[in-house]
Amino acid sequence: MKANAKLISDTPPGALEILTAALAADMRGVNEIILQNLQSEVALIPEVASYLIAAGGKRLRPLLTVASARLCGAVDDTCHGLAAAVEFIHSASLLHDDVVDESHLRRGQPSANDIFGNQASILVGDFLFARGFELMVAAGSLEVLKILARTSALITEGEVLQLSLAGNIATREADYLRVIEAKTASLFSAATEVGAILGNESHRTAMCDFGYHFGMAFQLIDDVLDYSADAAALNKNLGDDFRPGCLQRIDVDPAESASVHEQVP
Fold it and tell me: What integer pLDDT is reported at residue 89 of this predicted model?
């Protein structure tokens, strides 16, 4: 039995399901906002966006935004809009990354760029970024806007850094960690930090740190699974992240690997 299989078997199951059930009402509110803000008079926009966003996924990042807000004492539903904004930032990055990586599979089905083309994917990704910023502004917090705007820039920097390291066999561990910090951990960290800001500022640093370490662990596990997990469980072929010559692909989505979430409480 492979090492990662033992890790899965030793991990208490159900942590994500318990959290999802506890916040079910909140997440229904988040999903309503997401669907409302996918709408556009240009028919191709909701078609492409819905293909990605409405196709599924566990909404892990917005779930953590809401969880952080409630944990820190938030009493209203402002967190719903911010959680939706976090999901839009993530979804926009997925659309862009699939174009950059020339990916043809997402969540076990053809990627949006494979179906609609690269141009539509890039432009709809831009639309989702813009919608996300509208939701940030609606929250009425300049500090929240500052955090999520900075995070959006960090995600892009991480993508460019990964691109610059592609095919470089001299890539250092420190470089790899910089990439996953920017592209994965930064959004998890922002998600939990803005939730804390809505509730109790005194918990902001602790929640920011939690999100960061969660995101780093999340990505490290996903990258290990790319080499050693059950291919059917991942909805992709083993080694897909390595084969194109990239450092690794870190535009991971919760729906891409159930095993990842079984291992990260």
Answer: 96
Q: Would you kindly state where each structural domain of the chain is located, as residue ranges?
A: 3-7+21-263
Question: What is the pLDDT at residue 218?
Answer: 93
- Nearest alpha-carbon partner for 252 in 18, 93, 64: 93
- Map residue 168 onto helix, strand or coil: coil
- Closest listed residue to residue 23, CA positions, set 52, 62, 81: 62
Query: At the topology level of CATH, where does 3-7+21-263 sit?
Result: Farnesyl Diphosphate Synthase (1.10.600)
Handedness of CA 109, 111, 115, 121 (dihedral sign): positive
Q: Give CA torsion, residues 149, 152, 153, 159, to 10 deg.
A: 180
Tallying the residues shown for the chain, one arrives at 265
Contacts of 129 (CB under 8 A, 6+ apart): 88, 89, 92, 152
Bridge partner list, 106: 109
The DSSP string of 213-242 is HHHHHHHHHHHHHHHHS-HHHHTS-TTTTT
Taking Cα atoms as reference points, which of 74, 90, 175 lies closest to residue 132? 90
For residues 257 and 225, is the Cβ–Cβ distance under 8 A? Answer: yes
Mean pLDDT per 10-residue run, the chain (265 residues)?
Answer: 43 77 94 93 92 77 97 92 96 88 74 87 94 93 94 93 84 91 96 94 95 95 73 50 47 42 39
